[in-house]
Amino acid sequence: MVPSNLAANWIASWNSHDLDRVLAFYTDDFEMSSPHIVNIMGEPSGTLYGKPAIRAYWERAMGLFPGLHFTLETVYTGANSVVICYTNQAGRRCGEILFFNDEGKCFRSAGHYE
Length: 114
What we know:
By secondary structure, this protein is an alpha+beta fold. 32% of the residues lie in helices and 36% in strands. It has one domain (6-113): Nuclear Transport Factor 2, Chain: A (Roll). The longest helix is centred in the middle third of the chain and has 14 residues, at 51-64.
């Protein structure tokens, strides 16, 4: 089951700009898909695997957007997943789907952007 305060904690972690805090939500081998991965990392599939590769992506992205800030809009909770809808620092609406294992760690996520 997904904790009720997960989305607020996830947003706060991103707004702290502390990647170790953000990465604590995820398994070591998690998979992430985002159209931004294509542009920022040059990975045509738009998917990265594992904390080292995704850390490198997020470090680059945070360097490109030093004012990164998310405002939580709404949350949709499933049996073992959550959709976190937020507005970013540019005023664009975004949605992240996170899938969780039995230990409560995210093993797969996908970013969606307006």
